């Protein structure tokens, strides 16, 4: 990798940190972003995401800041997440969180692509049609595909999609892939007004339909919408399974991200 490539990645990561983490906006109705000392957090209802978006801590103050956040969220009776990135300081932040009672979730990779440089001429495989999610029926199909793909309850997704579609539909794009009338894959894109970033989330395909290009088609579908709406970058937190597909499409890995969960 050339020094130019390294410099471009560092600059892009710095932009992401500044705009999407330190300068984060609430990600849904009824949520708020608070800046307390060197910590930026989102506080919401128990059905929404609660957690730490950004911090600028040093070794001397980290443990006190962690204790302060635990006290704040447990005082509200909320489970919350501290999402740390591979370049966050202090370097032992993850170990400090575990010592304080947090449980780490699987590590993923933050990848970003410039929309204008992506190949967007990817179509769904034969027998698959993509349905925009605009109402409760579409949300139900989307949640069904999500449950089948990931093996988890998707009530949180139903709540999130319906709340956003009702309150702020221009900031959310949902799509479900149908084989006939059967949902076999789904995904969403969250648009952040006033920033150059749109985030790709939740892409998952039912096991029997994997390996046929549906995931790539869902990425291209959302990327075309992002381009039409003037967003410059697409961001993904990718699993090890998704990362190779995204890199082949033109996404660049910048760092890792690991959620640490605290349950009161």
From TrEMBL:
* Alphabetically ordered keywords of this record: Transferase
Q: Which Gene3D superfamilies does this one have?
A: 3.40.630.30
| Molecular-function GO term, any one | acyltransferase activity, transferring groups other than amino-acyl groups
Entries under PROSITE patterns matching the protein: GNAT
Pfam families from the UniProt entry: Acetyltransf_1
Write down the superkingdom of origin: Bacteria
Q: Where is the N-acetyltransferase domain?
A: 128-264
Q: What is this protein called?
A: GNAT family N-acetyltransferase
From what organism does this protein derive?
Answer: Streptomyces adustus
């Amino acid at each position: 990798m050339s020094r130019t490539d390294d410099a471009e990645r560092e600059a892009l990561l710095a932009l992401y940190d500044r705009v999407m983490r330190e300068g984060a906006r609430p990600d849904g109705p009824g949520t708020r972003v608070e800046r307390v000392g060197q910590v930026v957090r989102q506080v919401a209802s128990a059905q929404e995401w609660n957690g730490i978006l950004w911090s600028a801590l040093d070794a001397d103050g980290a443990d006190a800041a962690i204790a302060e956040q635990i006290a704040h969220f447990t005082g509200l009776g909320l489970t919350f997440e501290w999402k740390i990135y591979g370049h966050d300081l202090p370097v032992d932040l993850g170990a400090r969180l575990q010592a304080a009672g947090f449980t780490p979730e699987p590590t993923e990779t933050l990848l970003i692509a410039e929309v204008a440089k992506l190949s967007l001429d990817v179509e769904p495989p034969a027998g698959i049609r993509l349905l925009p999610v605009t109402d409760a029926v579409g949300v139900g199909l989307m949640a069904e595909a999500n449950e089948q793909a990931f093996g988890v309850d998707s009530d949180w997704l139903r709540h999130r999609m319906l709340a956003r579609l009702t309150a702020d539909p221009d900031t959310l794009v949902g799509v479900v892939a149908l084989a006939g009338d059967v949902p076999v894959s789904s995904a969403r894109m969250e648009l952040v007004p006033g920033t150059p970033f749109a985030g790709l989330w939740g892409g998952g395909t039912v096991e029997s339909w994997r390996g046929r290009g549906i995931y790539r088609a869902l990425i291209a579908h959302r990327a075309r919408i992002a381009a039409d709406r003037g967003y410059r970058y697409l961001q993904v937190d990718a699993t090890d399974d998704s990362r190779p597909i995204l890199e082949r499409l033109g996404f660049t890995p910048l760092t890792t991200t690991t959620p640490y969960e605290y349950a009161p």
